[in-house]
Design a protein that fits this description.
This protein has 251 residues and is of the alpha+beta class. The protein is 34% helix and 21% strand. It has 2 domains: 34-114, Sandwich (Immunoglobulin-like), CATH 2.60.40; 117-251, no CATH class. Helix 4 (173-186) packs parallel to helix 6 and helix 6 (204-214) runs parallel beside helix 7 (234-249). The chain is globular.
């Protein structure tokens, strides 16, 4: 009769201990956190706070923040030697490394998603109505306007072209929407400028959401309904008109 090998109690404990270590390592390596890298395109030194926590005590042009929870993060960037402070909100995806780039665009600064190898969505380029190369002639000062204004001065051409450059590197529409949202948080736009950015979005729900957020940041307010041509659904056009009525007539 063959004898059966029965592991001793100590052997079973060792195996259980090894199993626990393996499971713990897998949980850690399978992405409980995300990382964030902010770098300067112009060798600008800056300090970074994430959700109020200072990441680098000494200003530098590249800052890495690790072990961040996924979801919304509040960034505060202070430029060395200036009073300039940039605040924005981003969203981190679990188990993902995110890179943002700080750029000086004329007299403005922008913090935009960074891609080492920009990938232009073929879906965008296939549609001439949203070909981003056609937007480079946009200039905030190429028309006279004397109606109600949402701000004293719109964003510069250099800033808009910087946002366009960032949008060109975004594959996913949700990422392009977030980039446009971030630009609206810190800059006022003309209807033409906003229209250029909105043409990179196809989902009309996204377009309406952005239009609702943009309406208080529109320089030439009375031209807002020119955006109607970017919508195809009757219900979307009606919703856009309600946004306009609420902001410019009721107020």
């Amino acid at each position: 009769m063959e004898s059966l090998f029965l592991p001793s109690m100590s052997e079973r404990l060792i195996k259980s201990f090894v199993l626990i270590i393996s499971i713990s390592f897998c949980l850690i390596s399978n992405g409980q956190y995300s990382s964030l890298r902010v770098q300067s395109a112009d060798s600008l030194s800056f300090s970074l706070k994430v959700n109020g926590k200072l990441i680098n005590a000494s200003p530098t042009n590249v800052v890495q923040a690790d072990s961040l929870r996924s979801g919304k993060q509040q960034l505060d960037i202070k430029l060395k030697g200036t009073a300039t402070q940039i605040q924005l909100e981003i969203s981190l995806v679990l188990n993902t490394s995110h890179t943002y780039e700080l750029r000086k665009l004329g007299d403005d600064y922008a913090v935009l998603p960074f891609s080492k190898s920009p990938i232009v969505s073929t879906k965008i380029l296939a549609d001439e109505s949203i070909n981003l190369s056609d937007t480079l002639s946009v200039d905030s000062l190429d028309f006279a306007y004397d109606g109600p204004k949402g701000c004293s001065y719109p964003a510069s051409k250099a800033y808009i072209n910087g946002v366009i450059s960032s949008l060109e590197s975004e594959i996913f529409e949700s990422s392009r929407r977030k980039t446009i949202e971030n630009s609206l948080k810190s800059h006022c736009l003309t209807v033409d400028q906003f229209s250029v950015l909105l043409k990179t979005i196809e989902l009309e729900d996204y377009k309406l959401e952005l239009a609702s957020k943009a309406i208080s940041k529109i320089y030439d307010k009375k031209n807002f309904m020119q955006l109607e041509g970017l919508f195809h659904l009757k219900s979307s056009k009606e919703s856009l008109n309600k946004i306009y009525q609420s902001e410019f007539i009721e107020n």
